[in-house]
Design goal:
Rossmann fold, eight-stranded mixed sheet, two-stranded parallel sheet, 5 helices
Length: 235
């Protein structure tokens, strides 16, 4: 275990997308971190924000390795300008966030994660973007609130991919997510969190939060896939 470093959180004032300013925060990382990370939040119309619990726990997984982690609110959420654009505009918001990371952490490759709607939008943008070297889909949705999601692009996505889902995810039935995973190009990993619903909360047969299990799956994948060691932080 390397020496401890001071982790801080600071607001980002200069992240702008096509619809205007995007509210964002950066969890700082070690100066020698080889990667930076981006985490995208769930559907705005369902109350998703960059502070959603699953998004926060994903950030903590990347931060455990000393990586700087950017979270932001999609257009129309919180203090972000613009209006919800049914995924199309939100993909432009993800591109703007990647541009910001490239500008501020030039030379570092990027790991991109998203939860629910954020995983769908993030994967669509991150697959094929040379700056993105690894992708994490948490609670990857198959169908939710009358919306169907297609993942044909994953067959051409050569970056390492991790999918983590509750085995009682109401928006991504097990057999449907298994089919999505089977269609995706290698390298890939699929982890089921037992007794967890879409939000990584427990079921009646297995009560209690499962967010820690989700976070541990992400941390294990990061360490094994990219050869990183966890870095203890203070502050």
């Amino acid at each position: 275990m390397a020496e401890a470093w001071v982790s801080q959180i600071r607001p980002v004032e200069d992240l702008r997308g096509p619809a205007g300013r995007l509210e964002a925060v950066l969890n700082t990382g070690r100066d020698d971190a080889a990667y930076a990370a981006l985490v995208c939040h769930p559907h705005p119309l369902g109350g998703g924000t960059m502070h959603t619990k699953a998004v926060y726990h994903a950030m903590k997984a990347f931060s455990a390795f000393g990586l700087p982690v950017l979270r932001f609110n999609f257009r129309g959420v919180g203090l972000s300008e613009g209006e919800h654009a049914h995924g199309h505009g939100e993909m432009d918001d993800v591109r703007a966030a990647l541009d910001w990371l490239e500008k501020n952490f030039g030379g570092r490759e990027i790991l991109l994660a998203g939860f629910s709607f954020g995983s769908y939008v993030g994967l669509r943008v991150g697959c094929g973007d040379a700056r993105v070297r690894g992708l994490v889909g948490l609670g990857l949705p198959a169908r939710a609130a009358g919306r169907d999601y297609s993942y044909e692009f994953l067959a051409r996505c050569a970056a390492p991919k991790l999918f983590v889902s509750g085995d009682h995810d109401e928006f991504s039935p097990r057999e449907e997510l298994a089919a999505v995973w089977a269609s995706a190009a290698e390298p890939k990993r699929l982890v089921w969190v037992e007794g967890a619903d879409h939000f990584f909360q427990g079921t009646s047969d297995s009560p209690g939060s499962k967010l820690a299990q989700m976070q541990m799956a992400v941390r294990a994948w990061i360490g094994e896939t990219f050869g990183l060691e966890e870095r203890a932080a203070t502050g």
